Amino acid sequence: MNTAFLLSAALLGLAIPASADEFTFDASEFEKKPFEFSGYLEQKEEGLKLRSSSPAYSLAYPGRSSQNHLLRSTTTLEMAGKLNLDPVVVDVRAQAFHADDQLVSNSDRGTVMEGGVRWSAGPGLTVDVGKRVQRWGKGYAWSPVGFIERPKDASDPQSSREGFVMASAEWTKSLAGPVSAVGLGGFVVPTDGSRLNQDFGAERDLNPAARLYLLAWDTDIDFLWRGKGARPESFGIDFSRNVTSALEVHGEWARFRDASRNTVSAKGVTQQTEFDATSWLVGLRYLTQSEVTWIVEYYRNGLGYDAGELDDYYTFLDTALADGAASMLEEKARRVAQSGYGRPNSGQDYLYAKASVSEPFGWVYGAASLTAMTNLKDRSWQLTPEVSYTGFNNVEIRARAFFQHGASHTEFGEKTASRRVEVYARFFF
Amino acid sequence: MKTNKLLAFAALCFPLVAAAVDGVDLLKKVDRNLEPESYESYRKLINIEPDGAKKEFVIYSVKKGKDQVATLFLSPTSDKGRTTLRQGDNMWLYIPSVGKPMRITSLQSVTGGVFNNADIMRLDYAVEYDVKAVEETGDTYQLDLKAKTGEVAYDRLKMTVDKKLVLPTQIEAYASSGMLMKTLYFKDIKDFGGGIKRPATVETDSPLYKGYKSVMLYSGLKKKDFPDEVFTQGFMARMEELRK
User: Fold this and answer.
1) Contact yes or no for A245 and B89 at CB 8 A
2) Which domain holds residue B176?
3) Which of A4, A107, A200, B20 measures 20 to 30 Å from B234, CA to CA?
4) Is residue B16 in some structural domain?
5) ipTM score of complex
6) What pLDDT digit, counting tens, does each position of A348-372 carry?
7) For residue B71, is it within any domain?
8) Which long-range contacts (CB under 8 A, 24 or more apart) does A131-134 make?
9) A81 at the B interface (CB within 8 A)?
10) Domain for residue B33, yes or no?
11) Residue B113 belongs to domain with CATH number
12) What is the count of structural domains for chain B?
């Protein structure tokens, strides 16, 4: 009887969930500290299948012998510090890296990505001075309304970006009624024609900008403006809304006044034109019943090049970078590439689709995705499968491959590498 | 004979007594006994895998009124600084490295594991659910709750409430298909001070995550009021300012 009872009790004990007594938690362990330090160390290994006869290869590796495969190793260290002097916060985030492959080796001993002083005058008012990354817009892969920031990399939209030195004041107010929040921000991004915000513009100017935010009828809406200065005057609007709990729609529209664009003919004649350009984007994010998240975006780049213009550019590069071509032509090819054609996604029409699933097949902390991006004008495309795992404490592991395909003289058909595989581990501290 | 009549009368009266329990009032009492309407709290979320491996998250949460919730991740280091915001059915996630709020949905999980975003940024039950039935069984009430809209994470809840404490001991959450999505177990009644006495531990398991378990531990729960501006997207990057 006793044995049966003990056996039953033991079996019941197995079935009962582990006691909560085994867990302890005391919030005092997580008191706010006056100084915080954090960062990560990342080790990335890449394998590339190169298009060694392409003009892009000659531009990327000038004077180097043809090589079809390349292994690259990159170490990145990012460190951040924050000093909490309520109501003032002083912070800095800096990054350094070293990359090595058989063709080139380069290092950056340290770049301040962001840093500055923020004064919170109240819950709804902040004043900030420093190097900051503004992330305007609702687009996932692109943000045509990102007027005062470096452009996103559509192949890795969430990657860390460097900011611009700026001063800003932002005010937010909650309201009752259908417009439940309103925010207003004013910004200046000064350029001195020399080193200050050199990448923003070469002219001496204050470069003012403003943003009006509304949460109205459950829709996020921004009105955005950048004054004429080192860059042309621009204004735009964006929105984002959850149509259902599983479906979000978003869009952006931007108008650039007197924007300049450089073109080159197949024979190498360059031309600069100024015109009013419009860029826009529409997209959605949809969570299916099977918990697959779809992100689909169409992007119209009003400052981009059509298939014919890209064909002319690549025809010129073929001539300028051919064996025995004059060094002056090679130099011109390099200048033309930097004047607009060499930018990521320099075409006019793009479609982006990403299907991602968290914890596929019960793989907790795992994620998998497949991303396709196509230049609709020249029908070239890029396909990116990816897996990541965050199950180890403070470690993120990610692996992905890039397949870039297209006919000759198309955007993805002319990239330096036709295939690339990368694996990285990021250790947070 | 008289005894039989009395028993029959008592049996007839029992449903009337049960019906006399105001389900909505009871649910509102459960809500207030669990948390003040506006509060701050610290929570540790522990995801336990079948092999016993654990992953822990520590979050600081604030809530105001019926439908405004915000959370800040304090640990692990890889997630530190992430914030989430809920305004009714609208939810956003802010990741410092991404730098702008992204809309998220209630059924996704910012932590992975059994707890989803709706569990982590929970509103009062009475805000999201109608009481369809109340049943008295011994020391407990059994509440049958139906979601007020299709936007709510779980279509139906079966809540077991301790009669004496007016606190839940167990909640079963069902999808609109009738499938059991998860069961929440409320344990370890603790006095948090300020008149707040509630379970300090919420455990959950799910047939969708066989062998996995998630635990939520509460600490530092106290009544506190916040300006409305705290629950706006502009404040998401500044939530650390609320902690003293």
Assistant:
1) yes
2) 21-242
3) A200
4) no
5) 0.77
6) 999 999 999 988 887 888 999 999 9
7) yes
8) A131/A162, A131/A163, A131/A164, A131/A165, A131/A166, A132/A163, A132/A164, A132/A166, A132/A168, A133/A161, A133/A162, A133/A163, A133/B99, A134/A163, A134/A164, A134/A166, A134/A187
9) no
10) yes
11) 2.50.20.10
12) 1
